[in-house]
């Protein structure tokens, strides 16, 4: 269970990083679509929340 949760935390962190880079690169291009950038930043917030929640659960399980 702990190994599976660790993998999920890692995947959530990588997904957050990927969406963050996609959003930043889209904005750095100059003529980026503002709706797309906004959507990517919303996805980033959701993925970041998921990663933090999974990490907190993992820490609670490791505490025992």
Question: What does this entry show, briefly?
Answer:
The protein is an all-alpha fold and 64 residues long.
Keywords for this entry:
transmembrane; mainly alpha; 64 residues
Overall description:
Helices cover 89% and strands 0% of the residues. It is mostly helical and 64 residues long. It is elongated. The mean pLDDT is 90.
Task: Please state the CA-atom Rg, rounded to the nearest Å.
Answer: 15 Å
- Helix and strand string, N-terminal first? HH
Q: Low-confidence runs (pLDDT<50, min 5 residues)?
A: none
Biggest sheet, open or closed, and with what strands and sense?
none
Strand content: under 5%
Mean pLDDT: 90
End-to-end Cα distance: 13 Å
Instruction: Please provide the count of β strands.
Output: 0
State the helical fraction: over 70%
Anisotropy-based shape: elongated
Number of helices: 2
Assembly type of the chains comes to single chain
The assigned structural class equals: mainly alpha
Question: Could you outline the blueprint of secondary structure elements for this entry?
Answer:
Layout: H1 2-28, H2 34-63
Helix pairs in contact: 1-2
Protein name: Twin transmembrane helix small protein
Domain HIG1: 1-64
Organism: Neoroseomonas terrae
